[in-house]
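Thread: Newbie trying to understand structure tokens

Hi all, I'm a second-year student working on a class project, and my supervisor (Dr. K.) asked me to get a predicted structure for one chain before our next meeting. I've only ever worked with sequences, so writing a 3D structure as a token string is new to me. If someone could post the tokens and maybe explain what I'm looking at, I'd be very grateful. Here's the chain:
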Amino acid sequence: MFYLRLSCALFAPFLLAPFCLGVLFGANGQEGTAPPQTENRHGRTSDPPQQSSPTLKRTDRKEGAKEQSDEVVTIDTDLANVLFTAVDKNRRFITTIQKEDIRVLEDGQAQEIFAFQRETDHPLSLAILVDVSASQQLTLEDEKDAARAFLNSVVHHAKDEVAVISFSGEATVEQELTNNLGNAQKALQRIEIVLPPGYASRGIVINSPARPATGDDDPRLGTTAIWDAVWAVSEELFSDVPKNKRRAVILITDGVDTSSRLKTDEAIKRAITSDVAVYAVGIGDDKNFDGIKKGSLRKIAEHTGGRAYFPRNNSELQGSFSQIEQELRSQYLVAYSPSNKNHDGSYRKVEIEMVNPELRKQKLQLNYRQGYFAKGTTATNERTAQ
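---
Reply by user tm_fold:
Sure, no problem. This is what the structure looks like when written as tokens:
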């Protein structure tokens, strides 16, 4: 159990020669804006390499190509589609909502609902995005176990597909999108922690002038670039996924970003534009590192139509994945033709209100993507959801 592992942190003594060693200490960087530096409990000091937009690193593995489907899906691109779930105060999913029970608003204006239906077996395209920086060292094995059980339950062969991506300073595709569950499980098993050069323990990095530089001394190695990883997965991985598939990222991290070139809002915008929901599982080592940054994980989950979970032990970790599975299979689809017909690339805020008096009394929690970007030219409006 990861809860027990956290309470038994590593206490290995280190006998350091003072004339040749120096411990790096610095101030904590700001989320998504600080240059990438070596991750430790107190901060980082190295400068970032110059690079454009984040990209996914591909491995040489060729396992698990997707089986092809003959299904051709045509959709009306002028329709706005919103998936939502409803849960009561006991976290039970409500499956009896009807079209007349809700109202949809876009930028405060009521919209005419074109279609309404339950989605209990919607095809899924999932990315398991796993933080492998040093702060996950004590919890990674439990995360992998929970993710494997999740895949066994949620993925239906030939209909759903899943990819496995690890990330620290850069995101690496361990397994491309596949409906071969066995290959996805093998990819999860291969994931290992990436430590920065000179790493000692408990978030401390040793900078020794006597230690020769190696080809592995990448300044981003072992750092944590969460928002770059979410951006790259949303931009690249799902680019060829059919529109009829439900796209989701299962983000497993402590939420402490130390090296992203992009800000949280930029990752949110890319996920929304790519119609990707982010489900965040906030987990990490709060004994030796900075704990879990819940605010940023809640923000990206809520704005993209996902949900954030913060398990405190192994049982709750398993429960978080079970909740995600239920949500992905207990959704409603609402389609409407926006009254604002302008193709200006602007952000449109979406609200779903419960109008049925009896259901309103239950104070149901509705979970859905809070907006979308309208179609536009290449010179689109750069606003992001606030």
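A couple of things are worth pointing out once you decode it. The chain has two domains: 80-120+332-373, 122-327. The domain at 122-327 is CATH 3.40.50.410 (Rossmann fold). Feel free to ask follow-ups in this thread.
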